[in-house]
Amino acid sequence: MNTGDVHLVLDRYREYSTKFVTRQTRAGEEATRVHQLTLNTELVSQKFVLFVTANKIQLINIICTGLMNDVEFHKAHTHNHSGHWAR
């Protein structure tokens, strides 16, 4: 298995943007539901989860918390880093 840097990029569209409105329209009524997401939640359709800002916030928090708390990941993948963060 090859190893390398992992870059997590998060983006979003403001609720008043044309892209946001277009996505909401395409998604239909079901895509407005806020799900209670946890590490053990049964997977919900990507279409329904990622169209709702509250769902995306939960998902980002789950991913980031998992990465921050994964001691083995940090030991294996950050030992060569100087601690400088990109801005």
Main sheet: strands, sense, barrel: none
| H/E topology pattern | HHHH
Average of the residue pLDDT scores:
76
Q: Given the structure, what is the number of helices?
A: 4
Distance between the termini: 30 Å
Would you count the extended β strands for me? 0
Tell me the structural class.
mainly alpha
Radius of gyration of CA atoms, rounded to a whole number: 17 Å
- Strand proportion, as a percent range, falls in under 5%
Q: Report helical residue fraction.
A: 40-55%
Task: Provide structural commentary.
- This protein is an all-alpha fold.
- It has helices spanning 18-27, 46-49, 53-69, 71-77.
- The protein has a domain at 18-27 and 40-77.
- The radius of gyration is 17 Å and the shape is elongated.
